[in-house]
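Researcher: Go.
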Amino acid sequence: MGHRSRLAGFIIDCQDYDADEGARFWSAALGLGAEPAYREGEAEYAELSDAPGGLHVEVQRVSHASRVHLDIESDDIDAEADRLEKLGAKRIGFVKRWWVMEAPTGHRFCVVRMREPDSRADTKTWD
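Model: Structure:
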């Protein structure tokens, strides 16, 4: 049985910068709404609402250098990480409940669980 995956959205990593403050800038720059920041353990996130195509866009306070990374969501994150490794990506580590990976180009990205598996039909099924 195959698994499904799709582009989930973009995460704006802000090094040592308040998520609410970062969200204020990025919501104005992108013309999106900004939800109040929330904490999950030591992590701090602020979602931007009304992104095109139902994409998830979020500001995240981090300790590493600021960057933008994408998330790929899947109904089987281990199978998706395996598939991406066959394409040349490597697993950097499992964090909380997702895989942090690195593309052959050096770009970091995450493989996360699907939030709403039936909300968008644009998933790709892989064997």
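Model: The CA atoms of residues 12 and 68 lie 5 Å apart.
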